[in-house]
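[SOLVED] Need 3D model of a two-part complex

Original post:
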Amino acid sequence: MSEYNGEIRKMMIILSKATLENVYAAFVLANGARMEGIEAEMFFTFFGLEAIHKEKLEHLHIATVGNPAMHMPTMLGGLPGMEALATHMMKKEMERIDMPDVHEFLDILTASGVKLWACKLAMDMFHYKKEDMYDDIDGVITVGDFYKQGSGIGTHMLFI
Amino acid sequence: MNKIIAGATVQVNEEGYLTDFPQWNKEIGTALALEADINMTPRHWEVIDYLQGEFKNESPLSIRKIGKSGVVDIKEFYQLFPMAPLKTASKIAGIPKPASCI
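Solution:
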Protein backbone atom coordinates (compact mmCIF):
# COMPACT_ATOMS: atom_id res chain seq x y z
CA MET A 1 0.00 0.00 0.00
CA SER A 2 2.73 2.46 0.96
CA GLU A 3 4.56 1.90 -2.33
CA TYR A 4 1.91 3.50 -4.48
CA ASN A 5 -0.14 5.24 -1.80
CA GLY A 6 -3.35 3.42 -2.73
CA GLU A 7 -3.74 5.28 -6.00
CA ILE A 8 -5.89 3.79 -8.76
CA ARG A 9 -3.79 2.66 -11.68
CA LYS A 10 -6.22 0.66 -13.75
CA MET A 11 -10.01 0.41 -14.00
CA MET A 12 -11.54 -2.83 -15.26
CA ILE A 13 -15.16 -2.04 -16.11
CA ILE A 14 -17.65 -4.81 -16.82
CA LEU A 15 -20.82 -3.79 -18.67
CA SER A 16 -23.66 -6.32 -18.50
CA LYS A 17 -26.57 -4.06 -19.49
CA ALA A 18 -27.64 -2.33 -22.69
CA THR A 19 -29.88 0.42 -21.34
CA LEU A 20 -28.52 3.75 -22.45
CA GLU A 21 -28.02 5.13 -18.95
CA ASN A 22 -25.85 2.15 -17.97
CA VAL A 23 -23.86 2.20 -21.20
CA TYR A 24 -23.11 5.89 -20.78
CA ALA A 25 -22.16 5.44 -17.13
CA ALA A 26 -19.63 2.78 -18.12
CA PHE A 27 -18.25 4.85 -21.01
CA VAL A 28 -17.91 8.02 -18.94
CA LEU A 29 -16.10 6.09 -16.20
CA ALA A 30 -13.69 4.50 -18.68
CA ASN A 31 -13.01 7.75 -20.50
CA GLY A 32 -12.71 9.64 -17.22
CA ALA A 33 -10.06 7.20 -16.07
CA ARG A 34 -7.96 7.78 -19.18
CA MET A 35 -8.34 11.54 -18.77
CA GLU A 36 -6.72 11.17 -15.34
CA GLY A 37 -3.87 9.04 -16.64
CA ILE A 38 -5.44 5.81 -15.34
CA GLU A 39 -5.53 2.75 -17.60
CA ALA A 40 -8.97 1.40 -18.49
CA GLU A 41 -10.32 -1.81 -20.00
CA MET A 42 -13.92 -2.80 -20.62
CA PHE A 43 -15.54 -6.23 -20.73
CA PHE A 44 -18.88 -6.45 -22.51
CA THR A 45 -21.00 -9.35 -21.38
CA PHE A 46 -24.63 -10.46 -21.78
CA PHE A 47 -26.81 -7.51 -22.82
CA GLY A 48 -23.82 -5.23 -22.52
CA LEU A 49 -22.67 -6.71 -25.84
CA GLU A 50 -25.33 -4.62 -27.58
CA ALA A 51 -23.24 -1.53 -26.84
CA ILE A 52 -20.57 -2.83 -29.24
CA HIS A 53 -22.90 -4.65 -31.69
CA LYS A 54 -22.75 -2.74 -35.00
CA GLU A 55 -26.45 -3.00 -35.78
CA LYS A 56 -27.70 -2.44 -32.25
CA LEU A 57 -25.46 0.19 -30.74
CA GLU A 58 -27.25 3.07 -32.48
CA HIS A 59 -30.62 1.89 -31.19
CA LEU A 60 -30.13 1.59 -27.45
CA HIS A 61 -32.92 2.88 -25.23
CA ILE A 62 -33.28 4.10 -21.70
CA ALA A 63 -35.57 2.02 -19.49
CA THR A 64 -38.99 3.55 -18.83
CA VAL A 65 -40.35 0.44 -17.10
CA GLY A 66 -38.97 -0.62 -13.73
CA ASN A 67 -37.06 2.64 -13.44
CA PRO A 68 -38.42 4.68 -10.51
CA ALA A 69 -36.25 7.65 -11.44
CA MET A 70 -38.44 8.18 -14.53
CA HIS A 71 -41.18 9.36 -12.14
CA MET A 72 -43.97 7.94 -14.26
CA PRO A 73 -46.35 5.08 -13.52
CA THR A 74 -44.98 1.75 -14.73
CA MET A 75 -48.12 1.17 -16.84
CA LEU A 76 -47.51 4.44 -18.66
CA GLY A 77 -43.85 3.62 -19.24
CA GLY A 78 -44.97 0.42 -20.95
CA LEU A 79 -47.11 2.18 -23.57
CA PRO A 80 -45.91 1.84 -27.18
CA GLY A 81 -43.46 4.57 -28.15
CA MET A 82 -42.80 5.66 -24.57
CA GLU A 83 -39.23 4.34 -24.51
CA ALA A 84 -38.50 5.94 -27.85
CA LEU A 85 -39.89 9.27 -26.64
CA ALA A 86 -37.91 9.22 -23.40
CA THR A 87 -34.78 8.17 -25.28
CA HIS A 88 -35.24 10.95 -27.82
CA MET A 89 -35.56 13.52 -25.04
CA MET A 90 -32.53 12.21 -23.23
CA LYS A 91 -30.41 12.18 -26.40
CA LYS A 92 -31.33 15.82 -27.02
CA GLU A 93 -30.17 16.74 -23.52
CA MET A 94 -26.96 14.75 -23.98
CA GLU A 95 -26.09 16.58 -27.18
CA ARG A 96 -26.61 19.83 -25.30
CA ILE A 97 -24.00 18.89 -22.69
CA ASP A 98 -21.60 17.74 -25.42
CA MET A 99 -22.11 14.02 -24.82
CA PRO A 100 -21.21 11.96 -27.90
CA ASP A 101 -23.50 9.24 -29.30
CA VAL A 102 -22.61 5.60 -28.66
CA HIS A 103 -20.58 5.07 -31.84
CA GLU A 104 -18.61 8.28 -31.46
CA PHE A 105 -18.02 7.47 -27.80
CA LEU A 106 -16.51 4.10 -28.80
CA ASP A 107 -14.23 5.95 -31.23
CA ILE A 108 -13.16 8.31 -28.41
CA LEU A 109 -12.52 5.38 -26.05
CA THR A 110 -10.35 3.45 -28.50
CA ALA A 111 -8.43 6.58 -29.51
CA SER A 112 -7.81 7.22 -25.80
CA GLY A 113 -6.32 3.77 -25.33
CA VAL A 114 -9.24 1.99 -23.63
CA LYS A 115 -9.21 -1.73 -24.41
CA LEU A 116 -12.58 -3.20 -25.41
CA TRP A 117 -13.19 -6.92 -24.85
CA ALA A 118 -16.24 -9.00 -25.77
CA CYS A 119 -17.22 -11.88 -23.49
CA LYS A 120 -16.82 -15.20 -25.30
CA LEU A 121 -19.56 -17.00 -23.39
CA ALA A 122 -22.14 -14.30 -24.07
CA MET A 123 -21.07 -14.05 -27.74
CA ASP A 124 -21.72 -17.79 -28.11
CA MET A 125 -25.03 -17.52 -26.31
CA PHE A 126 -26.33 -14.73 -28.57
CA HIS A 127 -24.77 -16.31 -31.71
CA TYR A 128 -22.77 -13.14 -32.38
CA LYS A 129 -19.62 -13.24 -34.50
CA LYS A 130 -16.63 -10.92 -34.13
CA GLU A 131 -17.58 -9.35 -37.51
CA ASP A 132 -20.92 -8.30 -36.00
CA MET A 133 -19.14 -6.16 -33.46
CA TYR A 134 -17.60 -2.67 -33.56
CA ASP A 135 -14.47 -2.93 -35.72
CA ASP A 136 -11.96 -1.78 -33.14
CA ILE A 137 -12.69 -4.18 -30.29
CA ASP A 138 -9.50 -5.76 -29.00
CA GLY A 139 -10.82 -9.31 -28.99
CA VAL A 140 -13.26 -11.93 -27.74
CA ILE A 141 -11.99 -13.34 -24.44
CA THR A 142 -13.02 -15.44 -21.45
CA VAL A 143 -13.59 -14.09 -17.96
CA GLY A 144 -10.27 -15.67 -16.98
CA ASP A 145 -8.48 -13.73 -19.69
CA PHE A 146 -10.11 -10.54 -18.45
CA TYR A 147 -8.92 -11.15 -14.89
CA LYS A 148 -5.45 -11.70 -16.23
CA GLN A 149 -5.62 -8.34 -18.02
CA GLY A 150 -6.39 -6.76 -14.67
CA SER A 151 -3.42 -8.14 -12.78
CA GLY A 152 -1.09 -5.69 -11.08
CA ILE A 153 -1.08 -3.24 -8.21
CA GLY A 154 -3.77 -0.58 -8.08
CA THR A 155 -6.36 -2.31 -10.31
CA HIS A 156 -10.02 -1.82 -9.51
CA MET A 157 -12.98 -3.75 -10.96
CA LEU A 158 -16.43 -2.35 -11.51
CA PHE A 159 -19.59 -4.24 -12.52
CA ILE A 160 -22.37 -2.34 -14.22
CA MET B 1 0.57 31.22 -3.88
CA ASN B 2 3.74 32.30 -5.67
CA LYS B 3 6.07 29.98 -7.53
CA ILE B 4 9.31 30.70 -9.35
CA ILE B 5 9.22 29.10 -12.79
CA ALA B 6 11.93 29.68 -15.41
CA GLY B 7 13.24 32.64 -13.40
CA ALA B 8 9.87 34.37 -13.16
CA THR B 9 7.56 34.63 -10.15
CA VAL B 10 4.03 33.58 -11.07
CA GLN B 11 0.76 32.97 -9.23
CA VAL B 12 -0.32 29.32 -9.07
CA ASN B 13 -3.06 27.41 -7.27
CA GLU B 14 -2.49 24.42 -4.96
CA GLU B 15 -2.38 22.06 -7.96
CA GLY B 16 0.21 24.15 -9.75
CA TYR B 17 -2.04 25.73 -12.40
CA LEU B 18 -1.29 29.35 -13.24
CA THR B 19 -4.04 31.61 -11.93
CA ASP B 20 -3.08 34.70 -13.90
CA PHE B 21 -2.75 33.83 -17.59
CA PRO B 22 -1.01 37.10 -18.66
CA GLN B 23 1.98 35.99 -16.52
CA TRP B 24 2.50 33.03 -18.88
CA ASN B 25 5.28 32.87 -21.45
CA LYS B 26 6.83 30.12 -23.55
CA GLU B 27 9.76 29.59 -21.16
CA ILE B 28 7.30 29.00 -18.31
CA GLY B 29 5.38 26.56 -20.53
CA THR B 30 8.59 24.70 -21.36
CA ALA B 31 9.53 24.47 -17.67
CA LEU B 32 6.04 23.25 -16.68
CA ALA B 33 6.25 20.64 -19.46
CA LEU B 34 9.59 19.38 -18.12
CA GLU B 35 7.99 18.95 -14.69
CA ALA B 36 5.61 16.53 -16.44
CA ASP B 37 8.51 14.84 -18.30
CA ILE B 38 7.48 16.34 -21.63
CA ASN B 39 9.94 17.86 -24.09
CA MET B 40 8.06 20.41 -26.11
CA THR B 41 8.13 20.14 -29.92
CA PRO B 42 6.52 22.41 -32.54
CA ARG B 43 3.60 19.94 -32.60
CA HIS B 44 3.10 20.34 -28.83
CA TRP B 45 3.05 24.12 -29.22
CA GLU B 46 0.39 23.94 -31.93
CA VAL B 47 -1.87 22.16 -29.44
CA ILE B 48 -1.02 24.63 -26.66
CA ASP B 49 -1.83 27.54 -29.01
CA TYR B 50 -5.22 25.99 -29.71
CA LEU B 51 -5.98 25.48 -25.99
CA GLN B 52 -5.03 29.07 -25.19
CA GLY B 53 -7.22 30.32 -28.05
CA GLU B 54 -10.20 28.41 -26.69
CA PHE B 55 -9.50 29.76 -23.21
CA LYS B 56 -9.42 33.33 -24.52
CA ASN B 57 -12.77 32.67 -26.24
CA GLU B 58 -14.10 31.35 -22.90
CA SER B 59 -14.98 28.11 -24.65
CA PRO B 60 -14.86 25.11 -22.27
CA LEU B 61 -12.53 22.26 -23.25
CA SER B 62 -13.24 18.53 -23.42
CA ILE B 63 -11.61 15.49 -24.99
CA ARG B 64 -14.43 15.35 -27.53
CA LYS B 65 -13.78 18.96 -28.51
CA ILE B 66 -10.06 18.30 -28.90
CA GLY B 67 -10.97 15.48 -31.29
CA LYS B 68 -13.08 17.84 -33.38
CA SER B 69 -10.60 20.72 -33.24
CA GLY B 70 -8.94 19.94 -36.58
CA VAL B 71 -5.63 20.66 -34.79
CA VAL B 72 -4.97 17.26 -33.28
CA ASP B 73 -6.91 13.99 -33.02
CA ILE B 74 -7.49 12.23 -29.72
CA LYS B 75 -4.94 9.51 -30.36
CA GLU B 76 -2.14 11.97 -31.09
CA PHE B 77 -3.22 14.15 -28.15
CA TYR B 78 -2.63 11.17 -25.84
CA GLN B 79 0.72 10.52 -27.51
CA LEU B 80 1.88 14.13 -27.09
CA PHE B 81 0.73 14.40 -23.45
CA PRO B 82 0.64 10.76 -22.28
CA MET B 83 -0.54 11.11 -18.68
CA ALA B 84 -3.86 12.92 -18.25
CA PRO B 85 -3.48 14.89 -21.52
CA LEU B 86 -6.15 17.56 -21.08
CA LYS B 87 -5.02 18.43 -17.56
CA THR B 88 -1.30 18.32 -18.37
CA ALA B 89 -1.65 20.36 -21.55
CA SER B 90 -3.82 22.94 -19.77
CA LYS B 91 -1.22 23.30 -17.03
CA ILE B 92 1.55 23.83 -19.59
CA ALA B 93 -0.67 26.34 -21.42
CA GLY B 94 -1.11 28.36 -18.21
CA ILE B 95 -4.90 28.02 -18.29
CA PRO B 96 -7.22 26.62 -15.57
CA LYS B 97 -7.80 22.89 -15.10
CA PRO B 98 -10.73 21.88 -17.33
CA ALA B 99 -13.83 20.86 -15.38
CA SER B 100 -15.02 18.43 -18.06
CA CYS B 101 -15.95 14.76 -17.51
CA ILE B 102 -15.83 13.86 -21.19
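Edit: The first helix of chain B runs from residue 26 to 35.
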